[in-house]
Amino acid sequence: MGGAEKFMISMVNHFYNISYSPLVVLLSNDDTLANEINPAIPIFKVLKKSRFDVTVSKKIKKIIIDHGSSKIFCVNPYAFFLTKISFLGNTHYQIFLSPHTTKPFSFYNWFQTFVYYRLIGENDTLIYLCQAQQSYLSKKYLLPRSQHAVIYNGINTDVFNPDHFNEFDRKGLRSMHAIENNEKVILLVARINPEKRHLDALRALSIMHQQKNDIKPHLMIVGSGNAKLKQLLQSTALTMGLDNFVHFTGNQSDVRPFYFMSDIFTLTSESETFSMAALEAMSFGLPCALTDVGGAREMIFDGWNGSLAQPLHPLSIANAWVNALKKTQNGKAIRRFTAQRFSLSQMLSQYVALLSQPAR
Fold first, then answer.
1. Is 118 within 8 Å of 94 (Cβ atoms)?
2. 212 and 253 both lie in a single domain
3. Between the CA of residue 313 and those of 10, 22, 162, 232, 321, what are the distances in Å?
4. How far is CA 210 from CA 207, 237, 315, 318, in A?
């Protein structure tokens, strides 16, 4: 699951736990989310029969009205668009939009999203994940006037805690991948999709291995996705002579052991919003080497808890890795910083306060 899915699960389960009566409407047939949501929470699936099936909006409206809800929280612009169509001119309902994507991946995608955002009204509330996202979306889509807030993502720092593991676990986990305990491991947790730029990570790794130093790190890639791209990555690693240093683990139900066995965390993306995986890694005390996109500057203080690199620039990424590897002694301070600023409880309390406000 991606960050948007984890976010929604945390939100809806928390609201149920504090005695609200949430209802979930899913626009896909994927049962992964349903399995993570409290079974006492009603879930409805509304699926399109065709590309031009406009009855979806009416179905969403009927479910919401029958449930007696007056506040509607939409994750991403498409869900907002389908919901808003049926509630145009209806001021009884408060609608909140939390966009978890930022940069469009094509002109067609930009145009679609531009249309979706045109339905935002003055009484709707846009909730951004970081300041950088607010600035970018406002300019890119000429956003209509609305209520707005910035609430950072948060993670459960009690769950993402290195104290759940020990040095014996670290040695065992590394030995499973033929990695010595004194070798360096760079962890990349991201779906294998073009915008994540895994190829840039391989090129950066090749640069590090060619440099005249004793650091020849391993690159651990956690995640699945585009099968053809994965094949290309595997063949590229082989061609570069890095096949013994690049490890593809596929999807993992529990990523925590990989955070614990690694020395630094990286993302080489050309587009991110506010990475949950980076926060999870920092909760384990890992320095992060991130490309300078999205809200990276709002979580990374370059030279202290990691380093920033130019996107699409393997040499810059390699240099950021070298710099981050020098910060591994800051682990406890990085974890404290994450717990103080990006805890799940802090994020949820901010959402509860926002959604509890009466309509204006």
1. no
2. yes
3. 35, 44, 32, 19, 13
4. 5, 14, 12, 11
One domain for residues 127 and 166: no
Helix (H) or strand (E) holding 320: helix 314-325
Whether the pTM exceeds 0.85: the reply is yes
**Mean pLDDT in runs of 10 for the chain (360 residues)?**
82 94 89 85 90 85 93 94 91 92 90 95 94 95 92 95 89 93 95 95 96 86 94 96 95 93 96 93 97 95 92 97 88 94 95 87
Q: Which helix (H) or strand (E) is 325 found in, with range?
A: helix 314-325
Domain hosting residue 229, numbered range: 162-341
Residue type, 188: L
Strand 71-75 relative to strand 94-98, pairing: parallel
Relative orientation angle of helices 276-283 and 3-17, to the nearest 10 degrees: 70
* Residue 360 is assigned to a structural domain of this protein: no
Residue 95, domain CATH: 3.40.50.2000
A 10 A CB-CB count for 254 gives 7
